[in-house]
Design a protein that fits this description.
mainly alpha; about 250 residues; 12 helices
Length: about 250
C-alpha cells in the first residue's frame, strides 16, 4: 500500500510595468501583510512528512484540479499499487485507470510514469533535503511534468524548506498587493517572493495567501470584507469606486 499523505489546507491589477521601472517593496511591508493575514487566519504550522516521491506524485496530480480530485486520484494509486516502483513499472493504461477518478488521467498518467523513471533506479530523493537549493530545484524541474510550483511544493511539504509555491491564488493576490510586477510571470513571482519573505515565514505566508484567495481575494474579490484593503492598491481603487475612503495604511 502506498503511503497516505495528509492534505495541506490548501488578476493582477494594473498594466504592464518594465523591470527597470519596478521598485521592490520593503520586507517591513511584507511583514505587515504577514501580520494582518495572521490576524485573519492564524499561524498555520507545517508538518513535513518526509516522503518526497509521494509529494512529487501528489503535486502532479493536483495540477489543474481541486484538492478533492487530487486526493481521489492519489488514493486510487495507493489502492492499486504496493509502492512507487510498481507505479513506475506499470503500463500507462493501468496508471491512468487508477487515477481516473481525479480527472485529466490521460495527461497525468504519462507524466507520473516518466517522472518516476527519471528519478533513477533507486527511487531515492532523500538527498534533496540537504542539497544546495539551486541543485535540488534544478533536478526537480528537469523531471517530466514538473515546473517551479511543483518543485517548490516538494521542498516545502516534504522538508519544510523555505519555498513559496506560486499558484493561481498567490499570483493573483501578490499582484494586487504589489509584491511583484503586475505583469510578472510565475517564475518572476517565485523569485520576488523568495527575496521578500523571511525564510521562517514562507510556509505561513504561502498557506495564508491561498486561504485568503479562496475566501476573500477571489477573481471577483470581496474587498469590503478584507482587512488588507487599505494596504492594497487594488483594494483602495475598488473602495474608491464604491464611494468609500481610500486612506493609506502603511507601505
Amino acid at each position: 500500500m502506498l503511503p497516505s499523505l495528509g492534505c495541506q489546507a490548501l488578476t493582477p491589477a494594473g498594466g504592464g510595468v518594465g523591470r527597470a521601472d519596478w521598485v521592490r517593496p520593503s520586507r517591513a511591508r511584507v511583514r505587515r501583510i504577514r501580520d494582518r493575514l495572521r490576524e485573519m487566519y492564524g499561524r498555520p504550522v507545517n508538518l513535513p512528512h518526509r516522503d518526497p516521491v509521494a509529494e512529487l506524485v501528489r503535486t502532479i496530480l493536483s495540477q489543474a484540479t481541486s484538492d478533492l480530485n487530487r486526493d481521489r486520484a492519489f488514493n486510487g494509486l495507493s489502492e492499486e499499487f504496493p509502492d512507487w516502483e510498481a507505479v513506475r513499472d506499470a503500463p500507462i493504461a493501468r496508471i491512468e485507470l487508477a487515477i481516473r477518478p481525479g480527472g485529466l488521467s490521460r495527461q497525468k498518467a504519462p507524466r507520473i510514469k516518466a517522472a518516476l523513471q527519471e528519478i533513477g533506479e533507486e527511487m531515492d530523493l532523500a538527498w534533496l533535503e540537504t542539497a544546495p537549493r539551486e541543485e535540488a530545484m534544478g533536478f526537480l524541474t528537469s523531471l517530466s511534468g514538473v515546473g517551479r510550483k511543483t518543485a517548490a511544493c516538494v521542498q516545502v511539504f516534504t522538508w519544510n524548506l523555505p519555498e513559496i509555491p506560486v499558484d493561481v491564488h498567490v499570483h493573483r493576490i501578490g499582484g494586487r498587493l504589489g509584491l511583484f510586477r503586475p505583469n510578472a510571470s510565475s517564475e518572476e513571482a517565485h523569485d520576488e517572493l523568495l527575496a521578500l519573505v523571511d525564510p521562517e515565514d514562507s510556509y505561513e505566508f504561502h498557506m495564508n495567501l491561498i486561504r485568503h484567495g479562496r475566501e476573500l481575494c477571489r477573481p471577483t474579490p470581496r474587498c469590503e470584507a478584507c482587512a488588507l484593503r487599505r494596504m492594497c492598491s487594488f483594494g483602495k481603487s475598488a473602495n474608491y469606486r464604491h464611494g468609500g475612503p481610500a486612506t493609506a495604511d502603511g507601505d
